[in-house]
Write a structure and sequence with these properties.
Distance between the termini: 39 Å
Largest sheet: 8 strands, parallel, barrel
Strand content: 15-25%
Structural class: alpha/beta
Strand order of the largest sheet: 1-2-3-4-5-6-7-10
Shape: globular
Number of strands: 12
Radius of gyration: 18 Å
């Protein structure tokens, strides 16, 4: 790591969220959710400790916020502000008013269209930090930091003043789950706490074979990640199953008649495998 990056890290360390926040419950194994009310007893059954939550427009209401926080009260929750560039700071302020203390800023900013620069990302991050006023920990960049393009974006964001409390990386390397720990360790060299906020194993990713290339089912991939990342914090994508069979990486299927969610084949494989 070069000297300018180290200086940026030293400067940012004193400006992160205050220590008087309650301890984060974003710890252990998480599951990605899109405002679905998944059966909490089933989540506990397979060891889920926290929820990564993203909301579409219709769920950004006080009613839904209260409903989600009540439903998942036994879990840590990492909320995303990721959909609306102009309203992100306002949405972050709404989250802390709901009592949320862990917020992830955007999702894979390097892939946004129209493209945003590292400087724009760092500035948006700073505006959200100002909006929450020390009442929440901020997480980012919610993308890989190892691919050359992603690493350049990440390091340029740091030089531009990016100040995450926790680094979140996405791990879709297309390799054996056992290699995930090395990626976490590499990201940790920047001096921040690091978690994987998204990883999953759909059949196809970006039009290319993914899970089948590695070999194994969704459930077996989850179990291999669990064994490989003992003591680490990581989040599996996804909670609900996608309606596209090529993206079948979820742990719950939606009943088309009742609208309720029930365990998928992958869930039962995980439950049996411990």
């Amino acid at each position: 790591m070069n000297i300018p990056i180290l200086l940026c890290l030293a400067a940012s360390a004193a400006m992160r969220s205050p220590s008087q926040l309650p301890p984060s419950r974003v710890d252990g194994i998480g599951l990605n959710v899109h405002a679905e009310l998944l059966p909490v007893d089933r989540l506990k059954q397979i060891g889920i400790k926290w929820i990564r939550m993203d909301l579409d427009e219709k769920h950004w209401t006080d009613e839904w916020g209260h409903r989600l926080l009540t439903h998942y009260k036994d879990f840590g929750i990492l909320f995303l502000v990721a959909q609306d560039w102009e309203r992100m700071a306002t949405q972050a302020k709404k989250l802390v008013d709901w009592g949320v203390t862990d917020i992830e800023v955007m999702n894979e900013p390097i892939f946004w269209k129209p493209r945003i620069s590292p400087e724009e990302y760092a500035a948006k991050f700073a505006s959200i930090r100002q909006a929450v006023g020390g009442r929440a920990r901020l997480y980012g960049p919610a993308q890989g930091v190892h691919d050359p393009d992603e690493k350049r974006f990440w390091e340029a964001s740091l030089r531009a003043g990016l100040m995450p409390d926790v680094v979140t990386i996405h791990w879709y390397a297309g390799v054996a789950p056992e290699r995930a720990k090395a990626y976490l360790d590499d990201a940790g060299e920047y001096g921040f706490p690091v978690i994987i906020s998204e990883t999953g194993f759909p059949q196809v990713l970006d039009g290319r074979p993914f899970r089948l290339k590695i070999g194994g089912s969704v459930g077996s991939m989850f179990l291999r990640m669990k064994r490989a990342l003992v003591g680490e914090t990581w989040c599996f994508y996804d909670g609900p199953n996608d309606t596209d069979p090529a993206r079948d990486s979820g742990l719950f299927d939606r009943n088309s008649v009742t609208g309720e969610y029930q365990p998928s084949k992958a869930f039962y494989e995980i439950a049996r495998g411990g």
